[in-house]
Specification:
Elements (H helix, E strand, L loop, with lengths): L4 E5 L4 H16 L3 E7 L6 H13 L4 E5 L13 H11 L1 H10 L6 E5 L5 H8 L3 E5 L3 H5 L10 H13 L4 E4 L7 H8 L11 E4 L19 H7 L6 E5 L8 H14 L2 E6 L14 H4 L4 H4 L4 E5 L4 H6 L3 E6 L3 H9 L4 E3 L6 H11 L3 E3 L11 H13 L1 H21 L4 H19 L5
Parallel strand pairs: 1-2, 1-4, 2-3, 4-5, 5-6, 6-7, 8-9, 8-11, 9-10, 11-12, 12-13
Helix pairs in contact: 1-2, 4-5, 10-16, 16-17
Bound molecules: uridine-5'-diphosphate (UDP).
Uridine-5'-diphosphate (UDP) binds next to helix 1, helix 13 and helix 14.
Length: about 450
Amino acid sequence: MKRKTFVLFPSLGVGHLNPMVELAKHLRRHGLGVVVAVIDPRDDDATSGDAVARLAAANPSVTFRILPAPATASPDPGAHRVRRSLDTLRLANPVLLEFLRSLPAAVDALLLDMFCVDALDVAAELAIPAYFFFPSPASALAVFPPPPDKESETTKIRLYQFKRMMEGKGVLVNSFDWLEPKALKALAAGVCVPDKPNPRVYCIGPLVDAGNKVGISGAERHPCLVWLDAQPRRSVVFLCFGSQGAFPAAQLKEIARGLESSGHRFLWVVRSPPEEQTTSPEPDLERLLPAGFLERTKDTGMVVKNWAPQAEVVQHEAVGVFVTHCGWNSTLEAIMSALPMICWPLYAEQAMNKVIMVEEMRIAVSLDGYEEGGLVKAEEVEAKVRLVMETEEGRKLREKLVETRDMALDAVKEGGSSEVAFDEFMRDLEKSSLENGVCS
Ligand code: UDP
């Protein structure tokens, strides 16, 4: 049988690119051919551009192809971010089509990010089977999209994307069976599209960056990793809020006070407040944090501007708890390091992720106060940090994380549920190729 070749098409943003690259690595480990076709991120945030270069350098076994970005991101320059992103992805169809036609060998399947739904038209034109990759939890697929406001433009776009996702041949989910039994039961019962056969769901995760600690000399490591090397085991509170998380100055000051009064060590990734991001992308820490904070905490804390190598940080044995915005990649990365979490959801499906993380999976506790744009007070930050780091409840949380990590490791080992699901996906693909008369 000829080696199968897949083209992976991530949507915009690091939170979608990172897991797609993990999927690419997974396919390569199974001996499959892979090309990741990325729309030139020059019109997107600078972080994505850096990420493509970094991921390409770190993963020589994966072929990346940068597709030219459409001349205009959206027919409506004033459009909302979610609309612009949908428009950009749709306007990229001609370059995706041209790129696929230019490949020397036939493509066996297109694996599309959950938001790249209009690429289905390209797949149909070239008669390539299209599957979706869902980098959020299966629970989010089962209730997709959580509509806080049915009339909002974002909800309408998400509904459109969801409906089109159901046109795919199947959905690969970055999760594992043990973690989300309720959602998977609902999905198996056909909750997505009533009265119609639902696309098959394959939980093939967790696919997360395992880091690259071995063989890296101290000189090449990020300063925050070197700093962590000098901290006691499980002593550090790590705070990082995804690729987009940012707080107003008043909130940054509350966090700083809470950390300081907790007395615990910390590593904190800080961005400029949302309203300053275009004018001052580099946060002015002296102005944004309480007077004297950096000086007073210089022996016990480290503040990193904008970006830290999170996949490696969460694996570091000095880290004891992760204050997270509940992005699914961050959650899976923490699970694979058996790291308890403190939830502070900010955008997208994170509020729902928080509920399942705290109430169902029991791998996290939540902060109070952020709802409806409120401030999380310094006392609350201190209380939750102390709860996880110092109390019996924190110890139990850690135990639950160890169990969850072990179940995740079981899922991805040979014969585990995620490997079995991946084999089923390959078999189904093979079957559908044969039914369509494609010889391989
Ligand atoms: N990330 C990182 N450093 C940072 C912030 C984020 O390496 O300072 C990575 C993180 O490890 C994860 C991804 O960016 O792989 C963020 O994905 P997630 O789903 O957690 O959140 P999103 O950015 O989509 O909101």
